[in-house]
Amino acid sequence: MSEIKLTYFNVKALAEAIRMLLKYGGIEFADVRADRWGTEWVELKPKMPFGQLPTLEENGKVVPQSVAITRYIAKKVKLVGNNEWEDLQIDSIVDTINDFRGKFASYFYVNDESIKEALKGPVLKDVVPYYLEKFEKITKENNGHFALGRLTWADFYFVGMHEYLCDMAGKNLFEDYPNIRKVVENVYSIPAIKTWVETRPQTEF
Amino acid sequence: MSEIKLTYFNVKALAEAIRMLLKYGGIEFADVRADRWGTEWVELKPKMPFGQLPTLEENGKVVPQSVAITRYIAKKVKLVGNNEWEDLQIDSIVDTINDFRGKFASYFYVNDESIKEALKGPVLKDVVPYYLEKFEKITKENNGHFALGRLTWADFYFVGMHEYLCDMAGKNLFEDYPNIRKVVENVYSIPAIKTWVETRPQTEF
């Protein structure tokens, strides 16, 4: 296998699940972190397939899209379903977690401050508790996991970006949801991940 | 195999790729179309896993998320990659097409008309041509397909919702992009799809 190069910014957010899965599987990779606010990103952005990160480079080909990359690495490290129906369960909750992220992104990246505030209000008041209550129920039913009652890449996907979600929300979202927090605890208690969390670059989200 | 029930509204949009894949594979299914504006949806919405459609029901279990369902059916009808790397190529472009959809959704479903217009402007002016030029290049390189130079479920995913994208944009988006239009022609020229397009319920998008 040729070396894998993962390019993102120096944050966890959308690439951390990929990094953690690679560490979980003991797969070597180049953990490239571009400076988001410097000339590095200005020069790199037009070279990326759709002007976005993260990207995965393997065999000389650069591929974008964090969820697609996460699924691809999950197959390598065998944290996928045992059949197509199980993979559907994982894919479905991953896309739902990604929808949840999209709710925050719908206001967070709006430049106009008054529009941003107008959009943010209903998200935090109605949408967030709606999703979190359902996530809490699902993670309870699945014993501290998001799907199949066991560890899958859906857990990694959530754990990798849970701090990013809190950052966009401007608060700790998971305080009142012990079973969602258990997903984080479960992933962080895996020895390879524990080591990674202790040694990875320290970033806010 | 127990009967598949696909529930959505009486539009193509996010479910049409799934319907077309089922028709392509000759798989029987219940094509349930809930009345979006009547009491039917008011009663159905709270019963859906995350209050959204489409959902797939199989073996008595209801699963949401259109992309996840489309991928699941694509595996059944063998319009997926031949290996994990090929599946990554398909997944990556599907998520990019879905991002493109999200750009329209970012303003289309905002209730406040002035906010809606303020958000819509930059999307139509900058974001849309950026994506369409890249899609045109990709579909040219792939001989009228979105990935792997051959028919895959990525084509179905795009074709199923291309009218929905035009509806949200308020115009024909693909007039100046012959290779993108070729994807639609290629899918619509498949005999099983041709029959389906002629006999399916007529809807605006």
TrEMBL record, chains A, B:
<dbReference type="InterPro" id="IPR036282">
    <property type="entry name" value="Glutathione-S-Trfase_C_sf"/>
</dbReference>
<dbReference type="GO" id="GO:0006749">
    <property type="term" value="P:glutathione metabolic process"/>
</dbReference>
<dbReference type="InterPro" id="IPR004046">
    <property type="entry name" value="GST_C"/>
</dbReference>
<dbReference type="InterPro" id="IPR050213">
    <property type="entry name" value="GST_superfamily"/>
</dbReference>
<comment type="subunit">
    <text>Homodimer.</text>
</comment>
<dbReference type="InterPro" id="IPR040079">
    <property type="entry name" value="Glutathione_S-Trfase"/>
</dbReference>
<protein>
    <recommendedName>
        <fullName>glutathione transferase</fullName>
        <ecNumber>2.5.1.18</ecNumber>
    </recommendedName>
</protein>
<feature type="domain" description="GST N-terminal">
    <location>
        <begin position="2"/>
        <end position="81"/>
    </location>
</feature>
<dbReference type="InterPro" id="IPR036249">
    <property type="entry name" value="Thioredoxin-like_sf"/>
</dbReference>
<keyword id="KW-0808">Transferase</keyword>
<dbReference type="GO" id="GO:0004364">
    <property type="term" value="F:glutathione transferase activity"/>
</dbReference>
<dbReference type="InterPro" id="IPR010987">
    <property type="entry name" value="Glutathione-S-Trfase_C-like"/>
</dbReference>
<comment type="similarity">
    <text>Belongs to the GST superfamily. Sigma family.</text>
</comment>
<dbReference type="InterPro" id="IPR004045">
    <property type="entry name" value="Glutathione_S-Trfase_N"/>
</dbReference>
<dbReference type="Pfam" id="PF14497">
    <property type="entry name" value="GST_C_3"/>
</dbReference>
<feature type="domain" description="GST C-terminal">
    <location>
        <begin position="83"/>
        <end position="205"/>
    </location>
</feature>
<dbReference type="Pfam" id="PF02798">
    <property type="entry name" value="GST_N"/>
</dbReference>
<dbReference type="GO" id="GO:0004602">
    <property type="term" value="F:glutathione peroxidase activity"/>
</dbReference>
